[in-house]
Amino acid sequence: MDWLSDLARTFFDGSAMLAVLPQLLTTGLVNTLVISVSATLIGVVLGMVLAVMGISTTRWLRLPARIYTDVFRGLPAILTILLIGQGFAGVARDVFGPSPYPLGILALSLISSAYIGEIFRAGIQSVDRGQLEACRALGMSYATGMRQVVVPQGIRRVLPALVNQFIAIVKDSSLVYFLGLLVTEREIFRVAQDAAVLNGNLSPLVLAGVFYLAITVPLTHLVNHFDNRFRTGRRTATAPASGLDEVDEVDGTPIALTRGSNT
């Protein structure tokens, strides 16, 4: 059937895929990971600041954090990227040169920080208030108790959500191509798109999709693993001499399960 062969040539042309594969590996994949990891790291730092401001009892700290979060979560990602990438192009040219690459990372960082800030805030507020009260009873200051006890517990609880946010950033990194990246700065989607336009074939885009799946699918399963472990805990066997059958570890806290009596 002709239409099946046409579809195969359009989407699964092996020669077109092999031709673009080296560029996808050496240029596209590298730049996608650089953009995504950089935006995530900056977003984590800014997000923690936003989370601390968001739970502050001081109104003049809470209000700017709320406005920032609402704005960058409410705007479409592509609109933010274009506003940052084109609006600050003149200023960035004096600092970074003609490349819009840093502005793309900055735009994604601002977007991710708004989401990560909410993730951190929810995680911190999920920790029982008695934890902080116990810290104060032990003579710790509010800042010390938050830094050493409450915040670490909150971060651990939101690790799956943070990985999910990184997956979203990986996919949003494809939008940076709207800024007109240099040839050596193209990410996965731009490399595949250029090859598809040049060859008049969509197979490079299909291969780009495979690359994105190779990044996101394992991370998705990792999220599910972390989520199941944090929700259900982990059971480990103990020595018979201990008088216990096993230990149930929930959120990192060992809870002893006593041995049942035999009658």
From TrEMBL:
<dbReference type="GO" id="GO:0006865">
    <property type="term" value="P:amino acid transport"/>
</dbReference>
<feature type="transmembrane region" description="Helical">
    <location>
        <begin position="101"/>
        <end position="120"/>
    </location>
</feature>
<feature type="transmembrane region" description="Helical">
    <location>
        <begin position="67"/>
        <end position="89"/>
    </location>
</feature>
<feature type="transmembrane region" description="Helical">
    <location>
        <begin position="162"/>
        <end position="182"/>
    </location>
</feature>
<protein>
    <submittedName>
        <fullName>Polar amino acid transport system permease protein</fullName>
    </submittedName>
</protein>
<keyword id="KW-0813">Transport</keyword>
<dbReference type="Pfam" id="PF00528">
    <property type="entry name" value="BPD_transp_1"/>
</dbReference>
<dbReference type="InterPro" id="IPR035906">
    <property type="entry name" value="MetI-like_sf"/>
</dbReference>
<keyword id="KW-1003">Cell membrane</keyword>
<dbReference type="GO" id="GO:0043190">
    <property type="term" value="C:ATP-binding cassette (ABC) transporter complex"/>
</dbReference>
<dbReference type="GO" id="GO:0022857">
    <property type="term" value="F:transmembrane transporter activity"/>
</dbReference>
<dbReference type="InterPro" id="IPR010065">
    <property type="entry name" value="AA_ABC_transptr_permease_3TM"/>
</dbReference>
<keyword id="KW-1133">Transmembrane helix</keyword>
<feature type="transmembrane region" description="Helical">
    <location>
        <begin position="202"/>
        <end position="224"/>
    </location>
</feature>
<keyword id="KW-0812">Transmembrane</keyword>
<dbReference type="InterPro" id="IPR000515">
    <property type="entry name" value="MetI-like"/>
</dbReference>
<keyword id="KW-0472">Membrane</keyword>
<comment type="similarity">
    <text>Belongs to the binding-protein-dependent transport system permease family. HisMQ subfamily.</text>
</comment>
<dbReference type="InterPro" id="IPR043429">
    <property type="entry name" value="ArtM/GltK/GlnP/TcyL/YhdX-like"/>
</dbReference>
<keyword id="KW-0029">Amino-acid transport</keyword>
<feature type="domain" description="ABC transmembrane type-1">
    <location>
        <begin position="29"/>
        <end position="223"/>
    </location>
</feature>
<feature type="transmembrane region" description="Helical">
    <location>
        <begin position="33"/>
        <end position="55"/>
    </location>
</feature>
